[in-house]
Amino acid sequence: MFRRATVVYHFAAHPDVRLDGRGTRPHLDDNILGTYRVLEACRAAHVPRVIFASTSTVYGEARVVPTPEDYAPLEPISLYGASKLAGEALCDAYAHTFHVEAVIFRMANVIGGRSGHGVVYDLVRKLAADAARLEILGTDPGTLKSYIHVDDVVSGIRAGVRAATGPVTVFNLGSEDSISVRGIADAICEELRLRDVAYEWKGGAGGGRGWAGDIRAMQLAVYRLRGTGWRPTMTSAAAVRRTARDLRPRFPKRRRR
Fold first, then answer.
1. What's the number of CA atoms in the CB half-sphere (13 Å) around residue 23?
2. Whole-model pTM above 0.70?
3. Where are the alpha helices (DSSP H) in 180-235?
4. Which domain covers residue 47, as residue numbers?
5. I want to staple 66 with a disulfide (CB 3.0 to 4.6 A). Which of 39, 82, 212, 221 is the partner?
6. What are the tens digits of pLDDT across the range 59-73?
């Protein structure tokens, strides 16, 4: 499959922290077994390098925020985070056993105009259907997290890959601030020029969480990646605004009730 490849970018995954009707199986099949199959194919084809997309959720409810790459212990509270941490462990093992160099990026919440899930996508879709009210999962003001635009992700990955040395290199990849769910809703409404939208909070899993396994507060320390000369061009709020603007044409316009 990977014959004559010099690098493999493994970004495929089941991305949702929130469990759906398929239950727990997709995290095992897509994220753990899928990563094993990619690494095994790299070993068989003698691919020297693999780039792995991991997640901030491997840190769990970190006691240090912003959280650096050497934070420990890694205690994910979601099956998604656990499956990605297992993928990291497989990369580490293959790197040291079979000399497949691994570059791992622990990413904050990645957003952009082609998003198909996540809080920004969900809120824009809801506002397109009803511009007078907005149902939000969780309790006001919701979780507080870092959001990074996909354009900054691409430039960050390019910088990290160029700078990586050794069998395994880990980079945090995120913005340098955070935003609450209420802040996201406010930014989206302002960007879409909607006024007097009634927010309806639906409780969620408690502690501000929207669902079980959701992290209450997350911001990554990105000093290591900044040492390569990279830094994000957008704050979390700016990334949310641009994403909302780019997502809006994907949903049919409806009159405000």
1. 1
2. yes
3. 181-191, 223-226
4. 8-250
5. 221
6. 999 999 999 999 999
